[in-house]
Amino acid sequence: MEKFNNLSFHESTVITFEGKDGEFVTLLEDVSHNDEVENILITVKNVSKMTKDGVIKNELGMFFNDGEVLSLELDEEKLFILIEWNDFPTIKSQTVAYEIFGNFIQFNKV
């Protein structure tokens, strides 16, 4: 795992978003890092709870095929991510707040 400082997830694109069986993984494209753009894989292991808009869920997946990160916050045991999901063919969008609780959160450049 690489250490990252000065990461900005705002307006990064969600490529994958999946939570099940005690693990959560999301791949984000166009994350700003020290004036460069990176793709970042975030993994949360030993997941104890996942919520979608405050409702506990056993599984998480992509709401629509396109997602944009509005906010991402991290503390020692929780990942909070606010995503605007878009379905361009039907001109629909939905903003959803997720909280993923786990005791191992890892960021990797891919």
Structure, explained:
- The chain is mainly beta.
- Helix content is 0%, strand content 67%.
- The protein has no helices and ten strands.
- The chain has strands at residues 7-8, 13-20, 23-33, 36-45, 49-52, 55-57, 66-75, 78-87, 92-101, 104-109.
- Strands 1, 2, 3, 4, 5, 6, 7, 8, 9 and 10 form a ten-stranded antiparallel beta sheet that branches.
- β7 and β8 (78-87) form a beta hairpin.
- The mean pLDDT is 91.
Write the topology of this structure.
Blueprint: E1 7-8, E2 13-20, E3 23-33, E4 36-45, E5 49-52, E6 55-57, E7 66-75, E8 78-87, E9 92-101, E10 104-109
Antiparallel strand pairs: 1-3, 2-3, 2-7, 3-4, 4-10, 5-6, 5-9, 7-8, 8-9
Roughly how much helix do the residues carry, as a percent range? under 10%
Supply the helix-strand structural class.
mainly beta
Please give the alpha-carbon distance between the first and last residues.
Answer: 11 Å
> What global shape is seen?
globular
How confident is the prediction overall: mean pLDDT? 91
Q: How can the largest sheet be summarized?
A: 10 strands, antiparallel
Strand content: over 45%
Count of extended strands:
10
Q: Total helix count?
A: 0
Cα gyration radius (Å): 13 Å
Oligomer: single chain
The helix/strand series, from N terminus to C terminus, equals: EEEEEEEEEE
